[in-house]
């Protein structure tokens, strides 16, 4: 399997080590044809992307796109936090159009919407009872329905999710499920369940330093172990469906 784009990389706009250009150059070095810059959403208490920095990030992405035209395509995304049981993410509706695409996931360090959500996810970190897993998964499904999310990042890390329910919603909304080597490695059986429900997949590095950009070796191994093919993975060469964009129709 050959992956041609890395749609999940961090920079100094949140807590990554490299600049946007460092990641772009690393991606070119790995032979990729597209890279996405996806720093953490503003919900992170210490290192989330500051909304005031969005124009600067956009300017850098646009400039690099011109500079490296014909070699690589650079996209501006964000790794949003799911912050409410009703599927709310930490990107206000009015800001979504600033991004080319959205990733979304659960992170322990994000500010949550209300005390009910706070208590639910706190407990979900320690217990994987059926009702709790169901409720966490419903939050993810609602987020996929409410927002044009391109990909759910590292599902299964920290909290349990129902892969049948997640896979069905992913297939229905066109949201990819990330195969991550960084957090929450999904066993082959869970990847199979997602595939059987028709979920598209994405393989990303989740790089926090430039040297990690485009390193997919472990993820490809996991995909192969679950007998996924390039057609299942939207950023593989010959990958099936296109990516859900933040401004559909553009
Ligand atoms: Zn993450
Ligand atoms: Zn990340």
Annotation field: number of helices: 8
* Name of the CATH superfamily: Metal-dependent hydrolases
Main pleated sheet? 7 strands, parallel
Q: Which strand order spans the largest sheet, edge to edge or round the barrel?
A: 1-2-3-4-5-6-7
Helix- and strand-based class? alpha/beta
Kindly estimate the percentage of residues that lie in beta strands according to DSSP.
Answer: 5-15%
Structure in words:
Helix 4 packs across helix 5 (130-146) and helix 6 packs across helix 7. It contains eight helices and seven strands. The chain has one domain (5-232): Metal-dependent hydrolases (TIM Barrel, Alpha-Beta Barrel). The chain has a seven-stranded parallel beta sheet. With 250 residues, it is of the alpha/beta class. The site of one zinc ion (ZN) has 5 residues, from loops.
List the helices and strands and how they pair.
Layout: E1 5-6, H1 20-29, E2 34-40, H2 54-67, E3 73-81, H3 93-96, E4 102-105, H4 115-124, H5 130-146, E5 149-152, H6 163-173, E6 176-179, H7 188-196, E7 201-203, H8 217-225
Parallel strand pairs: 1-2, 2-3, 3-4, 4-5, 5-6, 6-7
Helix pairs in contact: 4-5, 5-6, 6-7
Bound molecules: zinc ion (2 copies).
Give me some keywords for this one.
single chain, 8 helices, 7-stranded parallel sheet, binds zinc ion, globular, 250 residues, TIM Barrel, alpha/beta
Task: Give the gist of this structure.
The chain has 250 residues and is an alpha/beta fold.
């Amino acid at each position: 399997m050959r992956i041609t784009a890395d749609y999940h990389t961090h920079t100094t706009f949140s807590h990554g080590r490299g600049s946007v250009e460092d990641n772009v150059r690393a991606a070119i070095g790995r032979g990729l044809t597209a890279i996405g810059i996806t720093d953490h959403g503003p919900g992170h208490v210490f290192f989330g992307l500051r909304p005031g920095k969005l124009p600067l990030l956009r300017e850098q992405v646009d400039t690099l796109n011109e500079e490296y035209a014909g070699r690589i395509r650079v996209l501006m995304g964000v790794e949003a936090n799911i912050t409410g049981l009703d599927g709310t993410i930490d990107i206000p509706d009015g800001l979504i159009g600033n991004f080319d695409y959205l990733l979304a996931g659960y992170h322990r360090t994000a500010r949550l919407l209300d005390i009910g959500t706070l208590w639910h996810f706190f407990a979900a970190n320690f217990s994987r009872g059926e009702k709790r897993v169901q409720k966490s998964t419903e939050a993810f499904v609602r987020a996929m329905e409410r927002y044009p999310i391109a990909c759910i990042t590292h599902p299964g890390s920290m909290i349990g999710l129902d892969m049948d329910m997640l896979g069905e919603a992913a297939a229905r909304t066109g949201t990819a499920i990330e195969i991550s080597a960084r957090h929450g490695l999904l066993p082959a059986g869970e990847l199979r369940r997602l595939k059987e429900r028709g979920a598209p997949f994405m393989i990303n590095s989740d790089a926090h330093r430039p040297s990690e950009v485009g390193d997919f070796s472990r993820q490809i191994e996991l995909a192969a172990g679950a007998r996924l093919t390039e057609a299942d993975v939207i950023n593989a060469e010959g990958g099936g469906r296109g990516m859900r964009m933040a401004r559909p129709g553009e």
